[in-house]
Records
---
Amino acid sequence: MGKLRSNIGSGDKLVCENCGAELTPERIYVHEINGAKHYFCCEHCAHEFERKLRIAH
């Protein structure tokens, strides 16, 4: 797994850190992992992302 990316920037669209789906105010799931906030489209993607982190370490 590559470097974790922060996808919050001025003018940038937010995308799910697991699947890349565009996030909207109606469809955003914020999950804190190791003290950092990460943004996902759903709870499933958040758990999948966290699982991939555990495997990578």
---
Amino acid sequence: MTAYGEKKMRVQRTWKVVGAKHSNIEQLQLELAAFNRCIDVLEKADANPQDIEVLTVHALTLAEQIDEVRWSNPAEALGWLLEKETRPAARKVSGAG
């Protein structure tokens, strides 16, 4: 097995633990922020672009999970949107804003 294949398997094993479905949006957002920090570190370290791509795909999947949980109850989603409109906060992460 190649070094890339071994790294990808490690990331996939980690993803199985981290990427498990949660009902708590805040927990999912914390996990997404952790993925984004890892991606930033790898980009600054000039790491293998394929490793960064694997983490990015997982971060996007996690962002989709956040959206699914958030929009599963339209009334709560509307409340969240209205609350967000009233407080100034810029978010970097997809799915967290």
---
Amino acid sequence: MTNLNCFGRHRRRTAPQSAGSRNELFALPLHSRINGWSLPLHSFQLLAWLVYSFMAIVGFGVYVPLLPAPWSFAAYALIGTAFVLHLVSHVAAVTIDPADLSVQRRKDYSSPMPVFDKNKHQHVIDNLHCTLCEVDVGPKAKHCSTCNKCIADFDHHCKWLNNCVGGRNYWFFFITISSAVIGMILLILVVLFVFIEHYVNPAVLRTAPQFQTVKGNGTWLVFLPAAPLETSSIGLLALAFITVLLALAALLLLCHLLCFHIYLLSQGISTYEYIIRKRQLPNPKEKEQVPPALPSNGATAQSLGPLESPVNCDAPLSSRSCTFKLEDRGQTSGRLPEPICAELQEVNGERHLEYSSESPTQVIPGKPVMSLPVGRTPSGIEKPQAPGRSVEKPAEGRPIVQDPLGSSIMDTAVVHQQLMTEAQTQYLGFKE
């Protein structure tokens, strides 16, 4: 008797269960994301805001106020402009909804999205119609799996913004990167200037009126002029070292990203198109593994070189052989005829087989070379052959047979007739 347990059945899964994974069930997001502020927030997004806040506090609260009067005003203006421009463009890139216009017209992100069924549709977007968003989209629109909506002029999904970068917010994204690079470079220059002047001429950095009440050169003030706080030289220099290292790491990533997007703009392509092109390029390792092309049928047999395989006289002739194909297509168990076998062994040993399509010519001393091929009649008299036909001139004492290595078809009756004719000719000549 079979025990039925209704509570022990496995639930219906949307993806195969991966071994060793904690997430046994994989489900697509039920709702579409509006912008970068939609929950859940990405860890990279929080890290980007923490780095920006740290650089702004350290730059405008510690090191820029220590600069002398002419340079402090310039630092406030340039670095302040870069940081404000970065803040505005960053917020705009995160807040803007980059979805396609047809998706935005719905204005209903609260309803759950349908799940993509590969049995009904091969692609998410088919004939400019998204099967998930159930709207018609533009030619460059792509459906982002993270945001779960179609993005107009899709470029990529940025984890630092927690939002997709498309046609509507691409330039805000580009300004965000550019302003961040400029701000980091200027801030590094200011911190290095303070670090060097601290050892060379510390009096240059102590021009603020609040330093008149400070006793000793080992005490420094930060957060001038609003809320001056005292600190030591070690704390000031350690903070400068940490700031420079963090700024250099961020600058390396930002410069790489900025140069990459400058290259994409010069080529007129997006990040998505760049990735697709890289995937379509052949792998260099696969090119090395491709075998060399075989010679075509039109190649001459001279390029193949002489045959090195020995001739087996005891092998039976089969109808499936590529060298001898009999008309009756039957398999013969007899051996090759002795004249043919001797001929093949002698030719294979001397390596004098001619595979070219040119005909042998008759050479007579003292006379011009004849261009017509010659043959031999049964009576032993040579006569020119018709143009277009090629017949090998036989060697002395060698029967005229068709070379089995030069042709894939040979008639046994013709070979037998040629052997009998040659034997009679030699016998009559010997008798005379």
